[in-house]
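Q: Structure for this?
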Amino acid sequence: MIQATKNYFRFLWRCARIAFVGDWRYYSWMGVLTVFCLLGLNAYCKQFAHGLITTGMSDEVSWGVYIANFTFLVGVAAAAVMMVIPVYLYNNEELHDLVIFGELLAVAAIFMCLAFVTVDLGRPDRFWHLIPGIGEFNFPASMLSWDVIVLNGYLILNVHICGYLLYCRYQKKMPAKWFYIPFVFLAIVWAISIHTVTAFLYVGLGGRPFWNSSIVGPRFLASAFTAGPALIILAIQVVRRVTAIRPEAYAAQQQAAAAARQAMAQRAAILEDLELLARHLPAFAAVTNETRLSLLPSLAVFDVSAGSVLLRQGETDKHAYFVLKGRIVVEREESGRHRITRSAGPGEQFGEVSALAGTPRMATAIAEEATQILRVPAEALRQLMKTPAMNKVIHARMAERLMITDRALMTLRGIVQVSMLINVFLLVCEIFKEFYSGNLHGISAKYLFVGLHGHHALVPWIWTAIALNLIAMVLLILPVSRTLKWLNLTCVLAIVGIWIEKGMGLVIPGFIPTPLGAVVEYSPSLNETLICLGIWAFGLLCYTIFLRMAVPILQGRLTKANEGMSDEQIAAEFAVAPSRIQSHV
Amino acid sequence: MSVPTNPTGSGMNRRSFLRTSAVVTTGLAALAASLKPLMEMKDFPTAERFMQKYYKELTAAEMENVLARITNEVEKEYGLRPHVRDYKPKNGVEFVYCLNLTRCIGCRKCVHACVAENNQSRNPEIQYIRVLKMPHGSLNLEEAQHNYDPEQVPEKGFFYMPVQCQQCKNPPCVKVCPVHATWQETDGITVIDYDWCIGCRYCEAACPYWARRFNWTRPEIPKERLNPEMSYLGNRPRRQGVMEKCHFCIQRTRQGKYPACLEVCPTGARKFGNVLDPNSEVAYILSTKRVFIQLKEEVGTSPRFFYYFDV
């Protein structure tokens, strides 16, 4: 127990340390974000001292960009988990590797939501009045009390799921299904509930006809499922790009590999090799001696030096490999970039997917140091997998990789496409209802879309939003958005469009005109804008740190096994530094 | 396997130590600079105020302490010793307001009497009553003029409608408050515990009558204008960041007096009383007058504030 706790804290400590390691791009990015965070903090301290008078809000428009951003980000948090649905309900393999990114985004988005609500409070020092048990909690009457519960619950759920899966991956242990699958399903339902509850915050107000409409809930979900996956499409491409190996480094690596290839020694496998494997792979112990003996003639052992290429992406051959000593990395090329998808140490396999399926190699495997590997033909691997323990382990390890494929992005594009169509349809429904009937309750919509009594601050905004959404919709329908460049543009348009439509376009006009018919406009003050930027910078900072920790764990480069390795080595863009290869050849 | 820069091996070298300390020092300095505006804060919550319990959980003795503390705080700030009490609702009382739209001339005397009585902030200005100037023949609030300023009232072709908290039987503001900081008392007055409100302004968004006001900054009341007759749930000075609104002058009406807005009204348009008392003026009006308006009846709030015409 004490050892387990110690291991866990060691894991946290190593994660924390890796967050401070990176190249100059990483440091400049984090530096810029920190500056914005501090500017935001400074602006918030002013607001804390002088009150919300430092904002553009008034008794007429009593919520502004804080709550607008909050509403948008609840949607992002909810939608980020939607990627879980295809993976766990329909066993979509492509998205599997991206689930963690989605959930980490959800966590960062909720941090931002909580920050936005906090800065909107007039008395943040009295936050404890909201804590059930200590304060006075108006549950279930107040939708805000529901929001407190669902948002914090959602935060805990997602932290638990990603934390647990990453810790298992770090330990190279199989996650216990009962310890996370029920929470995954709960999180799916919960994701829908957080956004519905946030919609109900507005819908429940009978005195504000602009909000008091049952379509707000469905519209929130539709726009969230557009903006959320769109944000993930962009985020994971950033991950892809920054985890890619720089061309110079790759070329050096290739040269070194060519020199190293001669140093590959092959021999027939002997029983001692299998015992060595069993020592590192306990499941192998369950394989009977008869099986071992019958398979032995088909197995071969290779001793390779650092930098040797063991198998190459695109080739077809029916062998899988187990590492006996040393360490290998697997790197994959897609869209002209090379990326490390996994890393394997003693007892771990590689090359098994294409061996079993007979498909071309998905990636290239390279020895990271002097390494001994056991080559197993596909037929022999199938024999081994007849032992249930081996079957389980090999299947589990197949999923242990970090592969962000273009196909996964296209699956996300499909989600964005459908949601955007529904979103625009619901918007049309709303506009029709507000304008065709011509009743007095449509007055806020009139202010929003065409202006009222000479006031039209929001008119350019909403038409920009509608234009962006329509262009994004058309692009999503056209095949042109299957290319990443256009898809990225589409995602940016959709995110900006929805941010305006849902934030400024929903929250502000609800207050204009006031229930007594006065038209008072709102625009955020500089201080308020700085606070918003600060919170966004804080959210991005959190997400960057989360990814900084998660990526090496998912690649198998930050593991319990390599505790002695320095942070720089783990964070290096290529495990085999050219200088190291030369020393071995 | 030798890697030239291994920080875990030979300990931190001189250069990286200097670099780290430079980064940490700059970071701390930047953080301190960011936090500096906190020094400008005039009204930092004391531990006692931070820990103060919810109104309904205060025992009689604790309430006495709180009232004594408030008395001292007000005296310290305004140089005048106030008389702060916590007036409880009486049994068999339900307050109702009736306002005669035929008589109201839109002079806004009620607005200013209310500000003076209830210690509302003069800067920025907070007013509980908003008088609407409406064209004859319409009750459409979209047509209302809020900032009318003629030489003389009333103006031809218009009538005037003062709007304040309607003390709803079914108040949306109470329903939405996440911390029970606002509630309806047995005599029908919806009150706010100013020391419990977290300032989320959800009630302000929920109110269909735009009756709630927020203290966007520290309220300012000139010392000589302070009304020293105060009640806990009523007109004691508020702090920055909390809601307030009309409470039917709880410090007066629970002692059998009329609200300030009624007393000042030059035309007698305002009537107030206990509707459960059959001999009260309001009971008489509600049982004899024929045309009543409950503002925004369709919202289902069921106001205790009735507008009527002399017909």
